[in-house]
Amino acid sequence: MDRVPALRLIALFEGLSDADLVPIMEACTIRSFPRNAQILSEQEQTTDIFFILSGTVRFSSYTANGREVIFNEISTGDIFGEFSAVDRLPRSSNVTAMSDCVVARMSAEQFHRVLLGNAAIATRLVELLVAKIRQMSERVFEVSALAVRERVRRELMRLAASGTRFGNSVVIRPAPTHYDIAARIGSHREAVTREFMRLEVERLIEVRRRQIRIVDIDRLAEATDDQVPGTRRGDPELQ
């Protein structure tokens, strides 16, 4: 892999010249991970930062009773590990390759030198961190304040952003499992399955093997739990 063009895919380095990218390239090591490989483990003491050159990774944690909580998934062009690179504290989640992945890895010391030497990269890092904080704040609000139906709807809207649009419908392929969606929204698989069945009855979605078709994206966007009969915000049955 030609590293300079590959690093140009990384959002943190948008707009940099080849001359700016060469020292960054030289400070990185490239490594490949097969699908399902664990890249980092929660509480690991390493502090390197990673740049995804290809593939998708997942961030997750497990409760004491073994329940998985999925925080996020990111793909080519994104970065991870920057929290530990900045504050030198242990890793806050497990990082797993969801597909075959190629990542560039840089030590925290080298990364600090890059930030000190390039104000544009430092500014871009702040922007990326703020975006992650906003996203996490939204997730915390949803889990704390919304019934499971509204959380499912919002997750479908997020998935639709990377789906394939056909008129006013959107096809999500490959679709996550009900287990994965439950782990993302702080619920359990059975509750997600019930909500999918309700959405199918109301002809808001159609579910096929590893595929979800949102029949009318505008109607789904408007279908909040306050507007749908029979759904009560905070109903214990829907948690």
Write the layout of secondary structure elements.
Layout: H1 3-7, H2 18-26, E1 29-33, E2 38-40, E3 49-54, E4 56-62, E5 68-75, E6 79-80, H3 82-87, E7 94-97, E8 101-106, H4 108-117, H5 119-145, H6 148-160, E9 164-166, E10 169-172, H7 178-185, H8 189-201, E11 205-208, E12 211-214, H9 217-222
Antiparallel strand pairs: 1-8, 2-7, 3-6, 3-8, 4-5, 4-7, 9-10, 10-12, 11-12
Helix pairs in contact: 4-5, 6-7, 7-8
Can you offer a commentary on this structure?
The protein has 239 residues and is α+β, with helices and mostly antiparallel strands. The protein folds into two domains: 3-142, Sandwich (Jelly Rolls), CATH 2.60.120; 146-238, Arc Repressor Mutant, subunit A (Orthogonal Bundle). Helices cover 41% and strands 23% of the residues. It contains nine helices and twelve strands. It has helices at 3-7, 18-26, 82-87, 108-117, 119-145, 148-160, 178-185, 189-201, 217-222; strands at residues 29-33, 38-40, 49-54, 56-62, 68-75, 79-80, 94-97, 101-106, 164-166, 169-172, 205-208, 211-214. A four-stranded antiparallel sheet has the order 1-8-3-6. It has a four-stranded antiparallel sheet with strand order 2-7-4-5. Strands 9-10-12-11 form a four-stranded antiparallel sheet. A hairpin with a 2-residue loop joins strand 9 (164-166) and strand 10 (169-172). The longest helix has 27 residues, at 119-145. 27% of the residues are buried. Mean pLDDT is 90; it is low at 226-239.
List its traits:
single chain; 239 residues; alpha+beta; Jelly Rolls; 2 domains; disordered C terminus
